[in-house]
């Protein structure tokens, strides 16, 4: 084979590979964009419909696709628990846990999946108070394992921050340390250039903003909410609720 033929062959392989990756990324991004739009518009009906459409019509095959779907469940279940819709939350937790266990069966050291396992144990704990001690212990153990496996994994870092903030001091909770870890998660997302159309990034920002408000650090909360609006001016929760309420509080 001539050198020119070899070069053409290699170029063709690269082009085919690029096309395949682009098609896969495009398909994944389509769902991510729908979820992101649902998040900034507080449209949880669209969020739920997207999850169930994926499960029914395009079940995830690769680990990345499964982790993406778990990410969607993660946000939706958190919303359901916040709305006290525990019956529906229990059903969605079970569906997500099946996917998590499948990922960990094939990739036992996957930090993202391990962090999700801990998070969903935490969700279970929220709706099953009788098992709060055992589920809480399992949740913290999984999150710690994920964080220790990869301390730069965004999901592991985020869930570590959540655990530090929510757990009682007796079980290792530390609200000031939680703030530092939330800031680490934000920095990791920003430094990896993955903040655009990332619902979790915006969610971490408003979580931190609310914490600052509770601590009466209103200037820090204002800075965080403005950061969220700079990234996404159409973010309804901040634009119509959190930010105006904070400004009113500052003026008093």
Structure description:
The termini are far apart. The protein has helices at 3-40, 44-57, 63-82, 86-106, 111-127, 132-149, 154-166, 175-191, 199-214, 218-231, 236-251. Helices cover 81% and strands 0% of the residues. It has two domains: 31-150; 174-252, Serine Threonine Protein Phosphatase 5, Tetratricopeptide repeat. The protein contains eleven helices and no strands. Helix 7 packs antiparallel against helix 8 (175-191). It is globular and about 55 Å long. It is mostly helical and 252 residues long. The model is unreliable at 1-28 (pLDDT under 50).
Concise synopsis of the structure shown:
This protein has 2 domains: 31-150; 174-252, Serine Threonine Protein Phosphatase 5, Tetratricopeptide repeat. It has helices at 3-40, 44-57, 63-82, 86-106, 111-127, 132-149, 154-166, 175-191, 199-214, 218-231, 236-251.
Which structural traits does this protein have?
single chain, 252 residues, mainly alpha, Serine Threonine Protein Phosphatase 5, Tetratricopeptide repeat, 2 domains, 81% helix, globular, disordered N terminus
In total, the number of strands is: 0
Radius of gyration over C-alpha positions, nearest whole angstrom? 20 Å
Number of domains: 2
Number of helices, where a helix is a run of at least 4 consecutive DSSP H or I residues? 11
H-E order: HHHHHHHHHHH
Distance between the termini: 80 Å
Name the poorly predicted regions: 1-28
Helix content: over 70%
| Category by helix and strand content | mainly alpha
């Amino acid at each position: 084979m001539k050198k020119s033929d070899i070069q053409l062959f290699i170029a063709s392989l690269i082009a085919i590979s690029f096309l395949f990756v682009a098609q896969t990324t495009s398909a994944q991004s389509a769902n991510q964009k729908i979820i992101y739009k649902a998040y900034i518009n507080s449209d949880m009906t669209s969020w739920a419909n997207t999850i169930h459409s994926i499960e029914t019509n395009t079940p995830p095959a690769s680990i990345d696709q499964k982790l993406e779907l778990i990410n969607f469940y993660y946000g939706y279940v958190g919303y359901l628990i916040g709305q006290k819709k525990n019956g529906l939350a229990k059903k969605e937790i079970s569906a997500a846990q099946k996917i998590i266990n499948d990922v960990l069966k094939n990739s036992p050291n996957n930090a993202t999946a391990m962090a999700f396992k801990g998070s969903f144990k935490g969700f279970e704990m929220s709706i099953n108070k009788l098992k709060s001690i055992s589920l809480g212990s399992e949740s913290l153990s999984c999150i710690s394992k994920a964080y220790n496996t990869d301390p730069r994994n965004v999901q592991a870092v985020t869930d570590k921050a959540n655990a530090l903030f929510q757990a009682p001091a007796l079980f290792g909770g530390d609200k000031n340390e939680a703030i530092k870890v939330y800031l680490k998660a934000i920095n990791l997302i920003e430094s990896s250039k993955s903040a655009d159309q990332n619902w979790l990034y915006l969610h971490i920002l408003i979580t931190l903003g609310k914490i600052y408000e509770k601590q009466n650090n209103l200037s820090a909360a204002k800075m965080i909410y403005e950061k969220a609006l700079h990234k996404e001016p159409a973010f309804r929760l901040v634009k119509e609720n959190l930010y105006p309420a904070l400004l009113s509080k500052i003026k008093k």
